[in-house]
Amino acid sequence: MYYKNYRRKGNMVFFLVIGGVFIAIGILAFFFWELPWAIACFAAGVLLAVLPQFIIFSRYGMEGDRLRYRKCGIPRSVKTDAIGTAIICIYDEYRRWKGFVPATFQGKEGPVTVPALVLLKSADEEELDLCDTRTNVRLTFRKEYITDMALDFEFLKELRNAGFSGKVYISEYIHALYKPAFDEIFQSGGYEVYDRIPKRVKRLQK
Q1: Is 106 exposed, middle or buried (0-12, 13-18, 19+ CB in 10 A)?
Q2: Are 130 and 136 in contact (CB under 8 A)?
Q3: Residue 202 has pLDDT above 70, yes or no
């Protein structure tokens, strides 16, 4: 099994601290305010500390020919033949005060962008220029969306070996960063690289 979210420790600590603050307020309210306020604050603190952890530490993985994952904390599964498209792009995440920004890790030569894998029932190639990040993919193909995750290349191999035969699209930016890994997995070149230029514009340029 693989972790769906990339940055887990920081988010875990954040919600534990916020939950702890409400729990502390609830304890103080028990002594200085009315009992209903104390119970409400204490309960809110417990929920804030515990519930987000199920999403933060959500996992996914293959079980035979089925993908097991969680959506809003609820276990789900889908057969590989129901996945028509896999889009590999930039993994972005919500950072407090900054909005959605690309997730990175420290490489030998500086920050390196984390890749994301977004699985869809199908996708319109004419809209791929909008799909540079996983959030944009979800917005663009919200009716076709199945799930997304921080890409683990070992999982990508498992998905291929489990019978996935849908189309694979890789953003130009991510492809340039991880080309050797993609070439190893898709030895027959079974993917298409896309960029930020709409296909209709490219047709006009020819």
Answers
A1: exposed
A2: yes
A3: no
Residue 15 CB contacts under 8 Å (≥ 6 apart), including other chains? 48, 49, 52, 53, 56
Sheet containing strand 115-120, edge to edge, reads 145-150, 115-120, 85-90, 167-171, 192-194
User: What would the pLDDT profile of 49-95 be if each residue is shown by its tens digit?
Assistant: 888 888 888 889 888 889 998 887 788 899 998 999 999 999 998 87
Q: What is this structure's pTM? A: 0.85
Residue keyed to tokens 């103080």: 28
Alpha-carbon span 175 to 167, nearest angstrom: 15
Residues 6+ apart with CB under 8 A from 65: 79, 80, 81, 162, 163
- C-alpha to C-alpha distance for 88 and 110, rounded to whole angstroms: 22
Residue 23 has pLDDT above 90, yes or no: no
Q: Which two tokens stand for residue 195?
A: 């960029």
Contact between 115 and 90 under an 8 Å Cβ cutoff? The reply is yes
